[in-house]
Each structure stands twice: as structure tokens, then as C-alpha cells.
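If you are new to this repository, start here. Below is one unmodified record pulled from the training split, so you can see the exact layout before writing a loader.
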Amino acid sequence: MNQLFEAVNNVFAFIVPISDFLWDFPTNFAWYAQIPILGHFSLAILILVGAGIYFTTKTRVVQLKRFTRSIKIVANRQATETGITPFAAFMLSSAMRVGPGNIMGVTGAVSVGGPGALFWMYVMAAFGMATGFTEAVLAQLFKEKKEQEYVGGMPFYGMKILGNKKWIGIALSLLFIIYALFNVPSQTFHLFTALGSVADTIGQTTYDRTSPVYYTIGIILIVAISALVLGGMKRVTRFTDICVPVMAVAYCGIVILLILINFQAIPYFFKAVIGGAFSPDAIFGGLFGVALQQGIKRGLMANEAGQGTITMAASASSNKHPVEQGLVQSMGVFFDSFIICSMAGFVVVMAHLWTGDGGVAWDSIKDAKLDVFMLSAQHLVPGVALDSIVQVILSLCYALFAFTTLIGMIVFAEISANMISKDKKFIMGIRALGSLFFVPFGVLTVLANLQLGNIWYLADLMNILLVFVNVPIIFLGSKYVIKALDHYNRTDGKSGFVSLRDIDLETDYWTEKNQAERDSFYSKV
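And here is the target side for that same chain:
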């Protein structure tokens, strides 16, 4: 079995240098890398930064001006005539956006760039809210109705904006499906890491990957994920509506408790973050650009704004106006970066293990991001009696982050696949491929104690290609977003929206007929 896995991994070896080159381009050229500060940033990062600033300007800072409206829309759980509610769409997008990367990414950013990296993460997230708004409005404008669901996202608006050619939509759909499904095994690995930690803590021992404990975990995961995913969108959203708030409250609750217990370190946190943003400690490189570089990268990668990966959830929602869903997704970026990522930041910065506190050999653990986070949390717990409890709760939260991200990957692949065919058998095939092939594949690699890095690089390659493709598309489509936003501001979102009449854009869903049906439905609820 191991030989088979290794052979499969070797097939994808050619992906590694291509992915590395694209992610690093043009920093992999000496002449560019020597440019102060700018030389630290790849083209992908510059594109995402530029997009955030551009859309913030074009929308006249809609993410701040309509912030309270965003909260009201997310909180409104009013029944919809079809599709899912904005609240469900928010939870579904958060299920995928809030993943293990929120903990490991922030921990890594602080470990390398110092506390000041958090400041720049917040700055980028504030701009990213406008990018998330823009792509979500496009997802709504170009969504299509499929029985009692809506489908859409990057492949749908990309096809329409780029000349309405079917092959473009299919190509974008395939790009996303490959990205999503090849991310599933890596999320399975994160799940095992977290649940294995819980088992070790409870059992007071270290279980081997070939032990019955790991086989039991694998079987439970395959059954649970298949039961959810094969049940379709409605079943998944019922789960995420409950699971995402629970994991967010549990995670934030335990971290807030640690903060309150160590309240005397709160002033240190803010001093380190704000001061470190402009003059990071020498231990982190002593360069202004280090904190800036790490913070910007984490701010962009954590919330996924501009990558097109959350647009499937935005399209699935039922809204009275397309701008509403843009505000919902803008709030999603805020929730991910300013709430969830901040929790990891508080833990790592307040523990400041890099100074030698807690008797930790920093050089030996600094590259193991999850270990740094867990040891930081342990350092903030008074005494030792609560160490195991805190570790179990945080490990379970980490596992839920990976679990919901995994489910989100498969569901979004399904939504994207509707561009290729809306046939029920084809869509069920995508669900089965994700839950009954890629999940078991990930389980088997863990049980075989293998980390097939070359295969995971394929997801990284697709991710960078999504950035290069999606950002130009939403730039081209932003004119429709601005027109829709102007209409929303003029009417305060209270009048009906018909795309051809109001912004001179013909769409499949936002028509006079559907507007009449929406008015009729909402007048009765």
C-alpha cells in the first residue's frame, strides 16, 4: 500500500517547482528581491493588495459605511422562498474560511514577523472586506436557479463577464473542483492531528498511527462526512448553522478566559502589536518589512477575499437585493480576521515564548506552528490542573475547523460543478468523489504515516491560479457591482431589484418575473 501511495505522490512531483515558482514570482529573481520592502512580496500578494485598495476606493468604503447593516442582514433568519438564508450562507462560508490555517497561519506570522504582523493583518483584512463584497455581489448577480436551490460563483460570473462562452465556465469550474477536492486529504490530516491529540491527552499515552484508536477515528470520519455531504446542501447548512457558532463560541470562550486570567498582559499585547508593526524586535529580523510581509500575507490568505473560493456560498443565498450578500460576505471577512485570527494572536503574543518564558526551547519548536500555539495556551493556564482540559478543548476546536473546512470544500466543488452539468447523477458523483474517495484517501495516508507533499502542492497550484484568474475577472465585473451598490444606496435596499432595468445588465435570475415572485413571497412572511 505504501508503495502505491508513494508512486501516486511521485506522479505529481512535477507540480512542486511550478507551484513554488508561481507563488514566489517575481521574488525568485535577484533583481526584484533586492528592492527594499517591495521585494518581499510576490505578484499574487500585490494583486490581492491592489484589489483590496481599489475596491475600497470604488465602493467608497462600503465595508465601514454599511457595517451595521451587514450585522442586521446576517442576524436576520427570516424564511426564504428558495435557496438558503443569508445567515446560512454566512455560516457556510465561515465553515470553509475558518480553518486550521487561522491558528497555524497566525502563529507562523507572529513567530516570524513578530506581534506587529497582526497590525498589518488587520489593515489587509479591512481592505479585503471590500474585495469580498465585490465578488459576492457578482456571485449574486449571475447566480442561477436550480429547483429549490441557487448555484453560481466564480465559474458562473467568470463565464458571463468573459464573453459568455461555455468553455470558459467549464474551465473555471474544473479549476476550482481540482483545488477543492485535492484540499480534502490535507484537511483530513489536520483532523487526525487534532483528534489524535485529544485521544493522547485523555488516554495519557501516545497512540501509534496503526492503533485501533486511529482506525476508529478514520471510520467515524468517513461515515460522518459521507452522511452529511451525500445528503445535499440543505443537510450541510443545517449542520453548519449549528456547528460554526458552537465552535466559534467554544474557541473564543476558552481564549477569552485565558486573556482574563492573564489580564495583566493585555497592555503588553497592544503595545507589542502596535509598536512591533513599525519597529519589530531584532529577534524577528529587525526589519520593517518582516512584520509587514507576514501580516499582509496572513491577512490575505486567512480571509480568502479575492480568491473566488467563497463565492459559491454567496451565490446559494436568497436575497432581496444582490448587494445584501456582498455585505454578508464582507462581514465574513471581518469575522475571520478580526475575531477568529485575533484569538490565536492573543494567545501567542501574550505568552511570548520566544523570550524564553516558560522554559521552552524556542529554536526547537518555532517551526511547529500547532505546537507553538498549544504550548502558548498551556503557558497562559495557571498551574497544571487545567492544562489537559484546555488542550482538549482547543484540539477539538481545531478539529472542528478542519472538519467544516473539509465539508465546505466538497459542497463548494458541488456548486461549482453545476456549471458543467446540473444532472442529479453528475452532482451526486461529485459528492461521492469527495466523501467516498478523497476522504478515505486522506485517512489511508494518515494510517500509513505518510505525508504526500507533492499531491498537496496541486491544491496550492490551483489556489494561485484562482487568484490570477479571479481578480482580473472581478475587476472587469466591478462596474456592475458599483451600479448595483448605487441603486442600493439610492433606495436603501427597500425597492425591488431588476438587473436589466436598474443597472442595464441582463441576468438569469434578477428579472421582472422573479421580482414579482419575491415581492409576493416576502409580503406573506
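Two things worth knowing about this chain: Confidence is low (pLDDT under 50) at residues 281-286. The chain has one domain: 2-487.
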